[in-house]
Amino acid sequence: MQTAELLEGARNLVRYAEIRAGHEVLIHFEPGSKAEPCSDDPDVLEALRTAVTEVGARASIMSTPPWNKTGGSQPPMFVAALDGADFLIGQGEYLYTKNHYLQVAMFEKGLVYIENEAKTAAALSSSYGRFPAELMFAIGTAVVERVARARTARVTTPAGTDMTMSIRPETVGGYCYPYRQDSPGYKKGFPGGTACFHPEDPVNGVIVAEAFAPFLPVPNLICDPPLRLEYRNHRAVDISGGGADWLRDFWQRRGDANASWLAECMWGVHPRAGGHGTRDASNPHLLHFGLGNSIPYGGPTFSKTWVVLFAQDATLTLDGETLVDRGRLTVLDAPEVRAVASRFGDPKVLLEQVPVTVQEAFGGHRHE
Amino acid sequence: MSDIGRELSVAIEAATRTARGERALKGHDEYYEFLVEGCTPCHFEIAGGRLKFGDGPAPRREPLRYTRLEISEGTLRAILTGDLSPVGAMERGELLLRTRLYGGGQMIMLLRAAYDLARARRVESGSPAQRAAGGAGGG
Fold first, then answer.
1. Higher-confidence residue: B130 or A288?
2. Does A300 contact B70 at a Cβ distance shorter than 8 Å?
3. I want to staple B43 with a disulfide (CB 3.0 to 4.6 A). Which of A113, A189, A283, B58 is the partner?
4. What is the pLDDT of residue B127?
5. DSSP 3-state assignment of B131?
6. Dihedral of the alpha carbons of A366, A187, A266, A247, in degrees to the nearest 10
7. Residues of chain B neighbouring A180 (CB-CB closer than 8 A)
8. Could you report how far apart the first and last alpha carbons of chain B are, in Å?
9. Using CA atoms, how far apart are residues B104 and A2, in angstroms rounded to an integer?
């Protein structure tokens, strides 16, 4: 059943993406998807269609059978439909932007791909899906400004991570600042809530990871004991702990000289992300490192592989100033963020961080 | 200004007059700096829907407003002559966008428009075989 909250969540997506009159919007879903079983909820599709239509844009809804996004061939009808779209709202499985057809559609033709990260009615209706765009952008802008003016970042975690990296301001970004600043031709998540940078040399230290990302075919996502990677000059020189055998074998079979290149440092900035169909990785309690192909993140190295490792309750310091303090995003207390929050309700309620652990986020995932 | 810088400036200027180029210019404001291997840097500024070319590095490098493109002269020439699409160059690791996650789309659209114009010229001026090859499109 459609509710006012669900429609408000859909309207929020339209506001985030700045969909306007005259835009052609394609909403794509995949009935039968195992990865996104709620992709075809008619109430969510109708809410999205209504929200797009009421701003004067034209909504077209397309259903395709699910396909393997990393190795399969995409339906030609879907690829053809992208030609006529200004915006694609991904309500099905994540489309993997490294695919050639999507690279062409985004970068050469100017398609804006909005991946809906609040796909279920519960998530889209919640305080996560309805989190005001203006407030998310205020948080994101505060984060981006602080990271971009720093020269050195250090990440430590209770489990033992201690990494030091340099920062180049041009690689600082994520899904958290006004999306118009990348128009046209980009991809963003809705409601987003992550910030990132490409670690620049020198990159040294130790990553102690507590979980692998769900897209990796590792039998158990939780690293028990934690996975330890020692980094010297941007590359892993020693690997041990839970998941080490799997990772070594994966890189031996499919990797290359840049497989362990530290390509991304990303963390959550959305205080309401976590559980109930939301994207846990957008919560500040979780920080992740991306290893391998650095090209999409502003880096200089190509790799055939991409591995994502999560750490919990990280502390991230920028030239000695604390941005994330054991999983708590400090800019949530910044006066400029509180001032924006007060326009939408009680800042204490809006900016209260939901607790998330790697066990809750990834403990239920198992690959056959 | 280097020869390739001059060629780039002419090609991108022409690209802005295509439908794809016009769409790119309607986006946000940003500096795009080209570092062509062995050549002096040059840059484009997109501001208020207009394009301006300049010699040397971009005068400003603000976060979310600056992209540096690193490319060899051979690869850039291949794009400007319609032999290699910009995404093709990116996928080969021969065109690096040193920018934020999913940044740089405007300039890739303009390079693609320049690539398409070069292929169209080839169709107009070439032999039937060349015309067939050019007309097949790329990328």
1. A288
2. yes
3. B58
4. 63
5. helix
6. 40
7. 28
8. 30
9. 38
Which pTM was predicted? 0.92
Residues 6+ apart with CB under 8 A from A189: A114, A115, A117, A175, A279, A282
Positions in chain B short of pLDDT 70: 1, 127-139
For chain B, the residue count is: 139
∠ CA(A97), CA(A19), CA(B26), 5° rounding?
80
Question: Whole-angstrom Cα distance, residue B47 to residue A64?
Answer: 40
φ, ψ dihedrals at A232, nearest 5°: -135, 125
Taking the C-alpha atoms of residue A67 and residue A52, their distance in angstroms, rounded to an integer, is 26
What would the 3-class secondary structure string for B17-48 be?
CCHHHHHHHCCCCEEEEEEECCCCCEEEEEEC
pLDDT digits (tens, 9 = 90+) for A230-239: 999 999 999 9
Task: Provide the pLDDT for residue B139.
Answer: 42
Enter the ipTM: 0.91
Number of residues assigned to chain A: 368
Taking only the tens place, the pLDDT of each residue in A62-90 is 999 999 987 779 999 999 999 999 999 99
* Mean pLDDT to the nearest integer, A297-310: 93
Q: Which residues of A touch B (CB under 8 A)?
A: 97, 100, 103-104, 106-110, 144-145, 148, 168-174, 177, 180-188, 196, 295-300, 302
**A113 token code pair:** 């791909």
Spatial CB neighbours of A314, under 8 Å, sequence gap ≥ 6: A155, A156, A157, A161, A267, A287, A324, A326, A327
User: Are the C-beta atoms of B62 and B29 separated by less than 8 Å?
Assistant: no
How many Å lie between the alpha carbon of A302 and the closest alpha carbon of chain B? 6
Give the DSSP letter of residue B95.
E
pLDDT of residue B134: 54
Number of CB pairs < 8 Å for A and B? Answer: 121
Q: Which helix (H) or strand (E) holds B124?
A: helix B105-125
For chain A, the distance separating the N- and C-terminal CA atoms, rounded to the nearest angstrom, is 35
Q: For A172, which of B63, B86, B104 is closest by C-beta distance?
A: B63
Minimal Cα distance from B91: which residue of A? Answer: A100
